[in-house]
Amino acid sequence: MIQFSRASRWYGEVIGLNDISCEIGPGVTALLGQNGAGKSTMMKLITGQMRPTTGEVRVFGETPFANPNVYARMGYCPDVDSFPEHLSGREFVRRMGLLSGVSKQAIKDRTEEVLTLVGMVDRADKPVKGYSKGMRQRIKLAQAMIHDPDFILLDEPLNGLDPIGRREFMGVLQQLADRGKGVLVSSHILFEVEQMTRSILLLHRGRLLAAGDLSNIRALIDSHPHRIRMESRDPRALAAKCAGFGHVLSVKVDEALDEVEITTRKPDEFYDAVMGMVLDDGLTITAMDSPDNNLESVYGYLTEGR
Amino acid sequence: MIGTVYKSALRDFIRPGRIVVWVMISLIIGLIAMVWMRLSSKQPPLVVYGQVIEVFVFRVLALVSAIFSTMVISQELDQKTIVYLTTRPIPRPVMIGARMLASMTISALIAMISVLFAGLFTVGPGILGHAGFWNDLVLMALGASAYGALFVFIGLLLNKAMIYCLLFAFGWETFVPNMPGDLFYVSIYPYLKGLSVNPEPEKVQGFFRVMSGSLQEHTVGKPLSVIILVAIAVAFSLLSLYWFNKHEYVARDDAD
Predict the structure, then answer these.
(1) Is B254 a member of any domain?
(2) How many structural domains does chain B have?
(3) Which end of chain B is more exposed for a tag (fewer CB within 10 A), N or C?
(4) Tens digits of per-residue pLDDT, B89-133?
(5) pTM to 2 decimal places
(6) CA A15, CA A18: separation in Å to the nearest integer?
(7) CB of B2 within 8 Å of any CB in chain A?
(8) Best mutation site among A99, A145, A155 for testing chain B: the one with the most B CBs within 10 Å?
(9) A103: nearest CA in chain B?
């Protein structure tokens, strides 16, 4: 559906996207990267708001810049939180539908259909200016889907959504993918992306660091010594238990903070063992997180060999 | 497709709050005309009407054009809502052309309401029988097209276009027609004035002389005025269609 061939985009002397080549097909694909990685630039190139400085971008076999044929088959949910604030959500979606070629006869039913899909059908009559962030995100998604496009791009769509909203939103994306639509979602949160798809494009400072199945990234994370931090009422007992695992490389105890930090080469095995420590050994773990289980670490592995 | 964009833009531009404000401004023009009428009791009502059109209504025309023209694209850029227009399956020339037409329609209608109030408050209902009144209505449409096309193009070129358009409407259009030499040819006001058929006052002085561009004895013939106004409207409209189709328009912050 979408092809990048050595595409770069410069903003004056600053490079936004650097020599990207990749293909994006049907199903859900995640565009993963930190703020400033080039995700929005990539979205703007695909949606034809901008042209690549060098190289080529093709969508449905055509160059997307100002191309109505492409827009007829594409829906875009932008990252900007801007609307014609005086309009109601329903009226905004309806107008976007008419501008997207939905007929006057079909527009009412279609508007209700997409508002139902995003969970806004009962709340869409108030002006957008009174909406919460989550409601605004849902309306943005509704306007992107109003003309039943083949491919939908969502730029940071989960920002501002509460956990229930996120789950519902992910459900909608899955429904779209199940109907054979292509979905490209950008995010800077690895955990979020893992719940949506296995197919990723990983961007860092304008470069495509990795593309393909998320398990490759996960394997990369897991192949490096992995720090896991736990809080416990009895950190010494917890540390002693952890030291007994063969895959644990080091154990540090901070009694002042009731904290234990371990490093392991097999994080999955350790996570499996945590259950046993709590249920069988009666140890108390009140909090647990992994500083290495994030994008920052992945970038470190990929770019600096850490 | 043009009709859909045109109607959508009209609905977007015409909001009850905005219309009330503009009708109030038109009403104030009418009241000014009435006071002027009282103060210059020696002048025939049609002459006062003509002066009000030249001094105030042409300014309202430029002002309303500046405001509604910048809503076509410039305001969408500033409010970051441009993305909802540029990612629709509508050719960009059609999108901007229809929106430009909608802004010109509203500008012309608001200026026409000012003309009507100016006429009613000076001459009374009899203004409807004055040929100059109908000529002025046509002038408002022509002026709205010329100003509108120019201001839309400015909005495509410059950030914060409203400031430049207002400077043009009130600064350039006031002072350039009063300058000696041929510089007055590069403003729009003298061509509008050149097409006015209202009776002229015997002598205009002070503030009104400046505002009516009468410091110099410039006159532009009717055929030339029509040609230039139409040429400005057509040329800047076509330039805008071309420019919008060829250049990138993303929200201002993103572009920075």
Answers:
(1) no
(2) 1
(3) C
(4) 999 999 999 999 999 999 999 999 999 999 999 988 999 999 999
(5) 0.83
(6) 7
(7) no
(8) A99
(9) B4
